[in-house]
Fold each of these.
Amino acid sequence: MLAVIGCRDLDDLFTSIPPDCRFDGAIPVPPALTEWQLGDLMRDIAETMTVRPDDCVLVGAGRYHHHIPEIVRSLAGRSEFLTSYTPYQPEMAQGTLQGIFEYQTLTARLLGLDVANASLYDGASALAEGLLMGLRIVKHSRRVAVSTGIHPHYREVVRSYLRPTGYEIIELPCGPDGRTDLSPLQGVDGLAAVVLQSPNFFGVVEDLPGAADPVHDTGALLVAAFTEPLAFGLYRNPGQGGADIACGEGQSLGLPVSFGGAALGMFACRGEFVRSMPGRLVGETVDREGRRGFVLTLSTREQHIRREKATSNICSNQGLCALTTTIYMAALGGSGLRELARQNYDRSEYLKAGLVGAGADLVFSGPTFNEFVLRFGGDFAPVRKRLQERGIVAGIEIGTWYPPLAGCYLFCVTEKATKKDLDTVINEVRA
Amino acid sequence: MKELSELDFPETVRYTEDHEWAADNGEIVRIGVSDYAQDQLGDIVYVEMPEIGDIFEKGDEFGTLESVKAVSEIYMPVGGEVVAVNEALIDTPELINQDPYGAWIVEIRATDVGEYDELMSAEDYIEMLRG
Amino acid sequence: MNGIVGASGLILNEPLLWEKGGKGRRGMSMVAAEVPEAPIDPELCGEGPDFPDLSEIDVVRHYTRLSQWNFGVDSGMYPLGSCTMKYNPKLNDRLAATPEIACVHPMLDDACSQGVLRIMFELQEFLAAITGLDAVSLQPAAGAQGELAGMLIFAAWFQSRGERRTRILIPDTAHGTNPASATLCGFTPVPLKSGADGRLAVETVAAAMDGETAGIMLTNPNTLGIFESNIRAIADVVHAGGGLVYGDGANMNAIMGIADARKCGIDVMHLNLHKTFSTPHGGGGPGAGPVCVVRALERFLPGPRAVQDDGGYRLAAGGPESIGRLHAFHGNFSVLVRAWAYIRSMGPVDLRQASRLAVLNANYVKSRLQGTLHLPYDQPSLHECVFSDLLQHGDGVTTLDIAKRLIDYGYHPPTIYFPLVVPGAIMIEPTETECRDDLDQFVAALKAVVQEGRDNPELLRQAPVRTKIRRLDETRAARHPCLRG
């Protein structure tokens, strides 16, 4: 090969790299491991993890333990989906393109809005993008209002994205029912968007319809964030609540918890705003023979064409994650989603009632889905430690993010928690 | 894309370096893009237009034309206030490809009639394209 | 193999999900109800979404058929320039799915998560080692988000010095994400023209650099596949003017163990783990775009990051000057695990060899295609080469036509119409995981297509004909968007 190129050795190919840019010596990383050695290493690493795969983890807070059927893994793992890239050549990427079109459709239906994009990185960056979109749409706007009931990490990401813009972020507190208090919006002008998370970080379902009119009266858009989309199998969806933009995390729908990633930013909006929407879009069309096909479209919003005037800078999205959640939604079906949501709710209510009966106080009175916050009479930490030794992680303490709620615990109950596990927790608390 | 000889450049309108045309109808000036512009852009899929009442100076960007793979800004040949936008372009942007001089984009009330006279004649515009 | 790669086969049609199924079908196991139904306020309830109900085999056949309409690296050569479509080792997928790793919740105490924190910490160290820079954040979920992090770090740096600079210099060969990321961060991108040799000249940068300029965003090697040999001098000019240098690491595959980013004068760079570090592209993500910085900028990195101390591993929150979180948790963690596994599988020798072979393969293809396609910049190039369709104009054949006909021959086309400085650009990046035989077959196919362009150009304009569908009406898709069913 070198002969064809006209070089004597491989080093001749690098003459364009000046000596003062050269790497010195070998790269300081460990020597190569064989497949078998690496497997052993991973086994050793796995053994240091104290929470085992079949433990009962009663923690949500933005990442949810649900059963994932085997077909989701095997179908999403097909290498034609896994090892392809952005469908720039649609004729040879109809699998990806139809897959994403189906994802956009199911997402739009789930969230009750007209159009959904092909995904953003995660719920937090999706929220940041949603607010930037609101600031683009609402003329002469310079501030957004953000409920403190929104996941603390999401609010941090919003601050990171908005810092360079100089736009103001107004924080809205939550009341004793755990729902957002909109009264700080009185008399505020230049508002682009007001965002509530529902169900929120405390697990409480916000009164979106009740918020829609006051928010729209200020001239702002209503943005609905979420971390647990399964809730929309039971409760009203963001569109029904009057939201203009819905943005949140899709991990619950078939992605493993996996230390927080890979994630899936679901994003949908009302049809009139589609040209302001960030992210890729797949559209339906026909080929030269009139057959239905799918193609990336409305690309002029995006960075590769619009460059500095793009709606965002996003290029790669979370393609395989979007496909994975669609497979899950397809396997679950509409009937299944409603039943699964109901099971989450019922089990969560069962634990809530059991623990309240055992002496705990429910901190917020508002309706919840599969998460709730409790305050215990005595010190819950030793109880929690005992439960952890029995393979049950009983909630997380939320004082780090909400100092007035120090000593309060956020619990999550999904269909993975058995009645036996829940009774164990209740009995341990009672003791 | 077509050769220059295959394109139309009527003498009844005046032209800008950025390929807009302007037609002086007395009080109102009509603005569109030239046959060369629509040919270069290809199939136009969307026209972003200003709002009635918006005021621009000569040379300001007042909208964009989108094809599948590109976006082109459009600039005011003369300054003034927008009094009409061509609503037909919302649903049928391809009118600009089909009839670039009939499918006007905006009508404005010009602030300075002199600016219109500064624009290029058809002959000058063709000369510029050839160069 | 004799003959060409592309063939025809039995491709099955498959409707949209909601065009099949039947109410009440179920495609997954449902837990049995174990607790009584709890009362609920009907005012709050919705009807649930209008989703189809499908059986397990409905779903399996649907996605099996869809997958067969796709072409991936596992199907055949995918020389998409600047995307580094190298082979994705299957072991890495299995390791990322290790149950103890896949189930771990990110909000638990560090003591529970020593294994995953160790993986994060080691990957941070590895990427610092490979780039020559000092500190790394794994949070950015994609290259573009890594660029945003870089721009935010620039802004934070200047703010810490009481300065506010508004301009970022960006060469005309840059990827579109570069100006978009700069703008997201409130900077004004200032385009710089590259020279006739495809490189950025020091004088061009010196002329543009001023007290308003925060710095420069460079890709090295650039999108022409050419090493920006003036990079140190450019970095010196920018630094002397009080600015910073951002490196877009998309083309890292050319220089692992060969060039040192820090020595080039780079202060901040991102890497694309789904490019250089073999994590699968997934049809458009998830990827990962970790950001690496020199020590002086470490305090601005997004947090938390993994650190190691006597007790083991823990998460250290971002300091007071950190640009803050960019992701709800730790980025695309399952992608990070794959990159960690890749680096552990390759080791120092094979990582460097991967770059050397990537450059060998690209130069081999470039040499064999000279004369067939026009080479706009006759310069030494590294892991990718850029041609144009200039020689085919006489036949009335365009880059698009060549690309579409190459599909019939069984290849994913190279990147086309990018970088913008080359009209009709054809950017070929074979990567190191193609062998000589496969490269020869690719070259033969491309030559055959060019010859067809001379003899019978209609074949190219009608292409592709062997795929499930023919060329699509993108105008219609944009004029009358139908974005959902």
Amino acid sequence: MASDVMAMHGAQTDRPTWVETLHAWVTTVDHKRIGLLYILYALLFLVIAGIEALVMRIQLLSAHNDFVSPQVFNQMFTMHGTTMIFFVAMPILFGFGNYLVPLMIGARDMAFPRLNAFSFWLSAVSGFVLYFSFLGGSGLYGAGTAPDVGWWAYAPLTARAFSPGSSSDYWTIAVLVSGFGSVAAAVNLIATIVCMRCPGMTLGRMPLLAWLYLTMSLMVLIGLTPLSAAQLMLLADRYLGAHFFDTQAGGSATLWMHFFWIFGHPEVYILIIPCFAFMSEIIPVFSRKPIFGYPVMVAATVCIAFVSMSVWAHHMFTVGMNSYANTFFMITTMAVGVPTGIKIFNWLGTMWGGRIQFKTPMLFAIAFLFQFLIAGLTGIMMAAAPFDWQLSLSYFVVAHFHYVIVGGILFALFAAFYYWYPKVTGRMLSERLGQLHFWLFVLGFHITFDPMHFAGLLGMPRRIYTYEPGRGWDAINLIVSIGAVIQAVAILVFVVNLILSYWKGARAGKDPWDAWTLEWSVSSPPPAYNFASIPTVASRRPLWDVKHPDDPDSRYE
Amino acid sequence: MIPELTSIFAPASTPARSIVDLSFFVLTITGIIFVVVAALLVYAIVKFRGRASDAGSEPPQVYGSTQIELAWTVVPILIVVILVAATARVIHAIQDAPQPPSALEVTVIGHQFWWEFRYPQLGIVTANELHVPVNDPARPRPTVLTLLSADTDHSFWIPQLAGKTDLIPNRINRMWIDPDRAGVFVGQCAQYCGTQHAKMLLRVSVDSAEDFDAWSKSQQQAAADSSAVVDGRRVFETAACINCHTVRGTAANGRFGPDLTHLMSRATIASGGADNTPESLRVWLRDPDAIKPGSLMPAMKLSDAELDALVRYMQSLR
Amino acid sequence: MTAAPALSVPVTPADNASPAWSLPDRGKVGMMCFIIAESAIFTIVVVAYLFYLGKSLSGPTPRDVLETPIFYTICLLSSSVTIHLAVTRLKRDASLSFLALWLLTIVLGGLFMYGTAQEWRRLIYEHGLTISTNLFGTTYYSLVGLHAFHVTVGLVMLAVVLLLGLTGRVRVAQSARVDVLSMYWHFVDVVWVVVFTVVYVIGR
């Protein structure tokens, strides 16, 4: 027993030393701790990548500004995008999945606890590899440089001829290694969900979060690996003299684009699907009704997963594909909007006839619904390929995808934080600080990303470190930059809330939200073994059945 | 001529106009969808908010409704079908438009960080500023651009004239414009191509038929030769400029940098990086990084006297 | 307890699922997922190979230099049979025949690697074809090399099991894990069927 060991070592108290605590966390294979490691790691990089964004927004405050050089600016947008996708969004979503999935399906841990730890540490190391590039990027010849090829690293810009030194290799290797970590995490999630559900929890009875993480993980298996393959080819080009993307030797620049976007488009669905999961758990609880249309939600998600594998070249509408190819991808891109819209309607249907409680998680969820709706509609605009010939590669696209990633994904993540923080820590986050965080962030988000659409409509391309005055872009850029500062303040409020509430927050108890899934049946925080004995369930909302034995869900399913 | 604002909603050419028409259609449909769904959301939030009197009781637990699901599946599918039909027509109209024999052909070659324009039918080579004739609907003369790249990916974007098309090495792309009024239209490279992507600007001068003919004729001439600038010309020839630049009619026939034969016919230098004035020219020649840091033109470390002479020589290239 | 409580505690103190509730084996599911991911990687490399067929600007073409490795292919595909037999023997606790068949599998896989090495030697030294010669060289060495890498990893794992088996540590109780490893080996063989078809049949 641990306490006996402490006594043998002659410790004054039963509390472990900081060295022992550090050791326990570094060597942990407990899914809850690994989940938290992922989340804390992601929050660190969220702040770093946010600073990179602020640097860009200061540079773009006015035309011909010289806050940073073009070389630094180009590194900023490359690192900001790469960090946010691979070292913020992916880890944080795997973190939530790690923490919640075993608890929600009545298991004690993930299927492969050691593989779980391995996945985390692979991803963690790769993030530091990427940032080491600031110190050692150019190799022996120059001062350090981070990669500056954009987060898509288009060929042949990444060829040795155009990217001498090692800066783009840091991008390649860091993302490649983190990709392996993500695939391992996905394998773990799938094996856990398929093989470790508690008795009675058929696939049709597991929480939507489990379904969505299962779908997302399957997509990771076949969506992330094309990028890994392409990156191996790029490394072969740069180090073994191969010619995969060497246009001088007959290689194809568009082949990289196809491979990248065959990864890149499923990737954004990989990011949003867990956020759909959060919404599907949170909205019902705060509307006091079950999710509307559970089977349809599952079907729509699977449909999205399949169709999203066929839309990738809508990122390449300007590349000069023939009209038949453009038409095909236009059709599939419009089509994927249908199941996505159905999900929005089902959340609306969940709220309809309910008794909505406007706690902080629900505030973020409601904002998500509006913002994701808008983001989806601007996506439909760009699905119309000729319209995209104007909008692509401009700030309209930047506005669209930030609407999805910040307005959708980040808002859903905030909702998830406020909802599950009590379970993880045993304390409630402050409602007052939560409301402040929410309204500040909504304000900053809209001040930044609403006008940004117009910069694109007025012809402002993306990835430019400065712009010409007199094109009508000046005032818009100023407003956009101001909104960024407001968002930064809101994030500060959030971080303060996270830290303060850990010590001062109201005690949460097992089930502060009166919810219905299995994680709310254990203490907050849960014991290391999760469940004293593995439960048996008879419906999709086991705790509803316990609380309403006269009217259990099992009667209606 | 002063350039106009680069709004995509101020089209001056058929491709851009078709896109505006399609965009209004799409915006109307998405606008209606937004208003309807947002209104329903607002209604739900207001009507079904929890009240203090509800504490302790749960609302009716509704699990779903097949009819409603069907309705909100079928309607979006119909909307998608309509959008697809409208869009497919515009895709084909723009991309598969037949090329009239009278079309003016221009080959555009993208470089880091400037544009090369070749008119094979007219024997003209110039850089960064494109001249095309106004299109008269009675006697159509659109301009067909063949897009190539000498190094990395670029993208040709003049919002008022057409949607953008990329320039990709080892690939031939084509696009067309038929500007309906004279004027100057600006744009810039839209596909990140390296350090000075931001200053790879584009300038299209749409000329009347007469002006275009005059411009073509003067561009077809070899460089003006003036004894007044002999010393400047010597600097040009000995300071390695001829390795990268062409001045037709002289020994200079480099292809790495822009053709300078008629440099003074352009309104800007450094592909829009600065106005074409003697002062800017001198700054550029002295140290290109002062205007466009990271551009591929090296500073040749010329003395003041050499710079003055060189600028005078450049000024003679009308 | 009243009738059928929703969240019931099982009667037995053990945490095993009741006999009526059985889910697939984690090892098999995990390996299937891994195989799916690897298949996606190979698919992309195959696509690149097919895309670049006939597009080399210069240098040797497949028809010029490739010789179909029938014998070594038979070796590799037979090793799938031997490994399958080895696993069935192990499940019956027939240690000796398991070890013999396992060793045979390794030998057959090793022969395949030898064949690949021979072929590469011939291509490099007699025909001057390397990964940087032309697009064919690039795609050929990448695709065949990626597969050979996977065979090598497989052989290492098989060797580890052989060593453990020789010291008596691989018995019936380990048969499920050995079975999962054999899934990987079968995958490597299936990939070879695809690579063989693409490189030596379609590609010429």
